[in-house]
Amino acid sequence: MTAEFDHPSREERAARRSRDAGSVWLQEESARSRRTPPLSRERIVAAAVELLDEHGLDGLTMRRLAQRLDVTSTALYWHVRTKDDVLDLAVDRIFGDVRLPDASGNWRDDVRVLIRGWREAMLHHPWAPGLIGRPLLGPNVLERTEFLQAALVRGGIRGVQLTVTTHLLANYVIGAALTEATWRRTTDPQERAEARRRITGNRDAYPTLNTSGHLDGTQWSDDDVFERGLEVILATA
Fold first, then answer.
1. Distance CA 161, CA 158 (A)
2. What pTM does this model have?
3. N or C, which end of the chain is more exposed by having fewer CB within 10 Å?
4. Residue 28: what pLDDT?
């Protein structure tokens, strides 16, 4: 948290008091924020996504966001209460990139299209998977979650099994995207090869890992592994 949060101005404190605590989706945007040119919530979110794509989660601060928008930090408080609000809005913006297909006669195909798009969006914005555990109440998130559950219901999945299957699919795609994004960001090809040699050089200690090709990216691509995993889940749903 930056110093500007530790010593907010009187105007900033008034802006914060004007909205209830809690999720940004449960707050009402103030009348002043809606008529404060040239800033808007849409512009703030677009700039935030740019900063997150460029610098990651640690690179997004309210001060830097204000600089990107060429406004004062105070102006931001009439539109968003905290950095967490900005992150919630940014995640929902990412979900808006996930194509929402028309429901077809094959519920599994509908789930495949949605889950593949979800993974693609998170890999395109590698900071996003780490935020999905937050309560997500934005319109884009809810619309796609509704589509997912409606497809599962068409497949005869109801009750607690509907909740379990929803969580299974969501956790699978989030975990896969998080692992892939982190691996790509922190590991170069030489390090990957060295990681594999750590296993192949200790065959007695890791016989199964040697046989299975653990950490050997030359055997199966991330896309292939993801698709096979998705099929396993759908086959047992």
1. 6
2. 0.77
3. N
4. 60
